[in-house]
Automatic annotation (TrEMBL):
Part of the ABC transporter complex HmuTUV involved in hemin import. Responsible for energy coupling to the transport system. Pfam families: ABC_tran. InterPro entries: AAA+_ATPase (IPR003593), ABC_transporter-like_ATP-bd (IPR003439), ABC_transporter-like_CS (IPR017871), P-loop_NTPase (IPR027417). CDD domains: ABC_Iron-Siderophores_B12_Hemin. Residues 16-254 form the ABC transporter domain. The keyword Acetylation does not apply. This is ABC transporter ATP-binding protein. GO terms for molecular function: ATP binding; ATP hydrolysis activity. It comes from Thauera aminoaromatica. Keywords: ATP-binding, Cell membrane, Membrane, Nucleotide-binding, Translocase, Transport. PANTHER family: HEMIN IMPORT ATP-BINDING PROTEIN HMUV. The lineage of its organism: Bacteria, Pseudomonadati, Pseudomonadota, Betaproteobacteria, Rhodocyclales.
């Protein structure tokens, strides 16, 4: 284990790799074997109809469940080679739901993202608070620090979840439907924020997002994994996967591809 600790992460390795990955739940195959590689500065989007297995796939990429076939690696090594705390510093997950069974302030909630950076008995210090406040400001929630998280609207709570992930400061962002409850303005603001983080000089970050909006995927993704809900999967560069015929087959409705002022959009036929 000491050798593994010294080797984390492997220099110049992709942030995320899946090799001959396949997933089965019960007696149903969610996807047959496929491989992928995500480098620093890249965004991968998971697309597919409801129930196709996008969340299950994301959780597998996050190391929360074992693949039925194949292997997932982050920083060049399988999850088994990572101590849990170091893995939590390398990759962070925004879950689809953020339940709040107990009252807590917004600042206290965002500070949860700093836990991987504290010792076992450590407490948040001024630097952690400053990081949490900066994360709230980046999602437009400066001044919300003392609000009870249980009093927030759905969209405000979603932005607090994003701020918590930002406070964690991982190299690999894994986001399950991050646009839930967000209006159009905040949807674009969130996607632009992560795009800026991926492109910052001196950083080596990547992102994996579960999205429902094909046109936002076309705008922001570098790579796409398209699940059809019947076990089929197509993984590749954005333009190779986002084709009207492939999308129509996956979503069960014909689509039309339109180019307008240098952008590609898909409309239901």
């Amino acid at each position: 284990m000491n050798a593994a600790r010294r080797a984390l992460p492997v220099d110049d390795a992709p942030l995320l790799e899946a090799e001959r990955l396949a997933l089965e739940v019960g007696e149903r195959w969610l996807c047959c074997e496929f491989s992928l590689s995500l480098a620093a500065g890249e965004c991968l989007v998971l697309l597919g109809p409801n129930g196709a297995g996008k969340t299950t796939l994301l959780h597998t990429l996050a190391g929360l469940r074992e693949p039925t076939v194949g292997e997932v690696r982050i920083g060049g090594l399988p999850y088994a080679a990572w101590p849990a705390l170091e893995a939590a510093r390398f990759r962070g997950l925004l879950a689809q739901q953020q339940p709040d069974p107990f009252a807590a302030s917004v600042l206290e909630t965002v500070l949860v993202g700093r836990h991987p950076h504290l010792g076992r008995w450590g407490w948040e210090g001024p630097q952690d608070v400053a990081i949490a406040r900066a994360a709230l400001e980046s999602v437009g929630l400066a001044g919300f620090e003392q609000r009870d998280v249980q009093t927030l609207s759905g969209g405000e709570r979603q932005r607090v979840g994003i701020a918590t992930l930002l406070a964690q400061a991982p190299r690999l962002f894994l986001l399950d439907e991050p646009l839930n409850h967000l209006d159009l303005h905040h949807q674009i603001a969130a996607l632009e924020l992560f795009q800026r983080l991926l492109r910052e000089q001196g950083t080596a970050r990547g992102s994996v997002l579960v999205l429902h909006d094909i046109n936002l995927a076309a705008r922001y993704a570098d790579h796409i994994i398209l699940l059809d809900g019947r076990g089929g999967v197509i993984a590749g560069d954005r333009d190779a996967v986002l084709r009207a015929d492939l999308l129509g087959q996956a979503f069960g409705h014909p689509l039309r591809r339109i180019e307008h002022e240098g952008r590609v959009v898909f409309l239901p036929d």
